[in-house]
Specification:
The protein is flat. α2 packs antiparallel against α3. Helices cover about 80% and strands about 0% of the residues. The protein has one domain. The N and C termini lie far apart (about 45 Å). The protein is mostly helical.
């Protein structure tokens, strides 16, 4: 039974695009930022959490190119 659930989860996750996975985590990230006490850290966190996927993806690829 566990093996069946594992394979179903694997199939489900593989059907999601990177953008869908990124978008699904945005609400969680915003919530975590809103729980921060320090206003400056909260602002920085929200800026990162609200970053559009296209910007995130471009920055990620730039980081991968660095040695």
């Amino acid at each position: 039974m566990r093996l069946c659930i594992f394979f179903l989860a694997l199939v489900f996750l593989s059907a999601c695009s990177d953008r869908q996975i990124y978008d699904s985590g945005q609400g969680w990230r915003e919530n975590e930022c809103n729980n921060m006490i320090d206003a400056d850290k909260q602002r920085q966190c929200l800026e990162q959490a609200n970053k559009p996927y296209d910007v995130y993806d471009r920055e990620r690829h730039e980081q991968e190119k660095k040695p």
